[in-house]
Amino acid sequence: VPSGTAMGLPAAVRDRVAAVHRGSALPERLRLYDGWAALYEQDVAALEYRAPYLAAASLAFAFPAPRAEARLLDVACGTGLVARELHRRGFRCLDGVDGSAGMLERARSTGLYQELQLCVLGREPLPAPAEHYDAVTVVGALGEGQVPSTVLPELLRVTKPGGFLCLTTRSNPSNLRYKAELEAALGQLEQRGAWQKLLAQEVEYWERATSEEESTQGTGYISGVVYIYQKCPVPNLEEG
Fold this sequence. Notes:
Blueprint: H1 11-21, H2 26-46, H3 51-62, E1 71-75, H4 81-88, E2 93-98, H5 101-110, E3 115-118, E4 133-138, H6 152-157, E5 159-170, H7 176-191, E6 195-208, E7 221-231
Parallel strand pairs: 1-2, 1-4, 2-3, 4-5
Antiparallel strand pairs: 5-7, 6-7
């Protein structure tokens, strides 16, 4: 593909992607995701969306074997793209949550999850007890107008001490303010001793850009980043 052909994407794909990233209110956005569910996987294939693959590969790299028994929570699981990649890498005990019933229906049809629940992150707590999961993933949902960075403590709550958190965000222009906020929040939790950063991997070709403005230096792609954190095994004494 010659450079600068972000515009090579079908207009309909571009419009659907732009719609969910636009600053619409949450109920409206969840409706858009419900409506997008049927076409979501073909659209992200057109976008060459690599986040699920990159996130699962990074988590598998950090994760000590064995994986089959490990309990994982796939937050904002969508149609199950991340679950598919995790499954390929030997993770078998997967639960998922998403704010869109339409997306959950698709995820259910994959047969990859043990439990799937509706949960609007940032509005309500995760439907899981404290220190329940060996790893928690949030791939693609941490972004401007989507999941607020204030959810990080809630992700930590459901993670076992010593467990892993795999998070991703985009580095395109319209998400830079959010990314800075997210990184500040990640850093504050690290300073408090809540978790330790194992990886922050910037990836140049994250997905196809939907506009020239978003494209990295005319490549037609946007960049992104994968973070892996490990929850500190020592409980935070100040909280008692």
